[in-house]
Write a structure and sequence with these properties.
The protein has helices spanning 3-40, 49-59, 61-82. Helix 1 packs antiparallel against helix 3. The chain has one domain (3-82). It is built from 3 helices and no strands.
Length: 83
Amino acid sequence: MNKKGSIIFYSLMLGLTIIVLALALAPPIQDFTDDALSDLDCDSVSISQFDKAACVVVDLNLFYFAGSLLLIGGVIVTAKIIF
């Protein structure tokens, strides 16, 4: 196998590893998010604007972290398939 074939194979393995890592980390991140949201008491109507903003940021935590890992892994795999 030449050098370009080795790099393509390595890149595909790296991309798939990142995707699997993102999927494996999603449940612990969801547990962390649920615990943080219950501690912040986000269901209460009488919380401050600061606490409401914190609730929104914590709620988006799973999407940003796991989504970015999935995006990075998908970009690596797609780039090596296309190019």
